[in-house]
Amino acid sequence: MHFMDTHTSFRYEQLAELITGMIDNGALAPGTRLPSVRAVSEQHSISISTALQAYRLLEDRGILVARPQSGFYVSAPHRGALRLPSTSRARSKASTVSISGAVAALLEHASNTSLVPLGCAVPEAALLQSNRLDLALSRAARQHGARYNAYSAAQGEPGLRREIAKRAMRIGHALSPDDVLITAGCTEALTLALTSVASRGDTIAIESPTYVGLLHTLEVLGLKAFELPTDPTRGIDVDALAHLLDTESVAACVLSSSFNNPLGSMMAEADKRALLAVLAQHEVPLIEDDVYGDIYFGRERPKPFIALDGGANTIYCSSFSKSLAPGYRVGWIVAGAYAQRVMDRKLAFSLCSPTLPQVALADFLASGNYDAHLRTLRRMFQQNLARMTRTIEAGFPAETKVSRPAGGFVLWLELPRRFDSRELFDQALEKGICFAPGDVFSASRRFRNCLRLSAGHVWNESVEDGVRRLGKLARALLAR
Questions:
Q1: Is the pLDDT of residue 78 over 70?
Q2: CA atoms within 13 A of residue 156's CA, in its CB half-sphere
Q3: What is the pTM of this model?
Q4: Is the model's pLDDT at 306 over the cut of 90?
Q5: Residue 166: which residues within 8 A CB-CB, separation 6 or more?
Q6: Shortest CA distance to 223 belongs to which of 247, 245, 180, 252?
Q7: CA distance 121 to 125
Q8: Which domains are delineated in the chain?
Q9: E-only strand ranges, 180-334
Q10: Of 322, 312, 317, which is closest to residue 164 (Cα–Cα)?
C-alpha cells in the first residue's frame, strides 16, 4: 500500500481512503488481516498513532474489525460504506433567495423538545458540560453585577478580545485584541460583514449546499446568491469560481473555513491558497464562517483563510455557539480593511453586546479549561457521527449516499432524484422525528432529494431508534 495524491488534509484520512479503495476494488478481500500498525507506520513514514487513528476510523465505519491480540481484519461483506453525495452542479445565474418561511417552520419544529432532535445543528447542553462556564457567569454577576449591568465598549470586553487574539496565534494568525469586535453570535458577524461590502441587489458567491441561516440573511438584505459547485469532501471548485468572476460582477464570496454545514466538506490548504489568489486578482473580498473550526477530528486544527492571507482580503467570522455556549450568543469578527465600516454598522444595529456573557467567557478561556473541553467534545461528536452513519447504513435505502465529515456534527444524505424529503419531513413529524429537509440549504431550492441530520445530542436509544425509524419511512417512500 502506498499513499496516492489526494486532496485530503490529514494523513490518517489518506491512509483510510487508500485502504477503503483497496477493499472496494477487491485488492483486500473480506477476512484479510491488515499489516500491523507498526508495519504501516514504517511503510508510509507516519507515526504509529496516525496509523492507529486510520484503523480506528475504519473500525468506526464498520469497514475493519479489531480482534484482540490478533490485529485488524477486513469486515465481512455488508451494506455499509455508502457512497459519498454528488458534487453539486454549477448554476447558470444568480438566484433571488426566498427561504424565510421554510426557516421559520424548521426552527419552530427543531425547538420542540418532544421530537427526536435530528433537525437543529445546535449542541445539546448535556454534551457541552458548561458547569464551569455557568460558575464564571454567576461569580461575575455576584461580585460585580452593578458594574456589568451597563453598556460595554462597542468593540467588546477587552479581556475576551485578548483571549480570542491569543487563541488565533495557535492557528498561525497574529491578532491584536484591537482587531477583534464582539458580536451577537456569528449571525450578527456575517450580517455586519455583508452589509459592509455589498448593497441590495448585489450577488454573493456561496457554497452549494450551504448554511440555511446564511441564505436567510441574504434574503433579508436583498442580496442574490450564486451557488458554486461544491464537492462533499474537497469543498468548492476554484476553477468554477474563477470562471464566475471572469464573467459576472460579484460583491463578495462567503465560505465556511472548514466543515461546511451541511456537507462537512473542507478545502485543502493548497486549494484555499488558490482560491485566495483568484479572489485577490478580481478584488473580491472573502467572508469566512469558522464556527466549526474547533470541532475537528484530525491531529491539527485546519487553518482558516485569514491565517493564509494575513487578513489582506478576508473578513473572519466565528462564535462559541457550536462548541461551548449557544445561549450566550457571543461571536466575533475580524474585519481588517473593513473594520471601520463594520464598527459603524455595529453601533447602528445593536450598539454593543451584553457584558456578563463576555466576562464569563473571558474568565473561562483564561482558566485553560476550554481546550480540555474541546478534546472531549470532539471525541463525542466523532463517535456520534460514526454511530449515526452505521445506523443509516443499516436502515436507509441501499441507494442512500452519506457524507463523511472530518469535523462538525452533521451528516448530509442524498437519495435518488425521485425522492422527496419534504414528504418525508411531514411524515417524520407525525412520528415524532425532526430533521432538516435538503431544499432549505439552497437559494434555488435544490436538493429536495437530500436531508441533513444533526448528531449534536447525546447518543442514546431514543436517537438511534429515531434514525432507524426515519430510514424505514424513507424506504417506504422510495418503494412507492
A1: no
A2: 30
A3: 0.83
A4: yes
A5: none
A6: 252
A7: 12
A8: 11-74 (1.10.10.10), 98-126+374-479 (3.90.1150.10), 128-370 (3.40.640.10)
A9: 180-183, 203-208, 224-231, 235-236, 252-256, 286-289, 314-319, 331-334
A10: 317
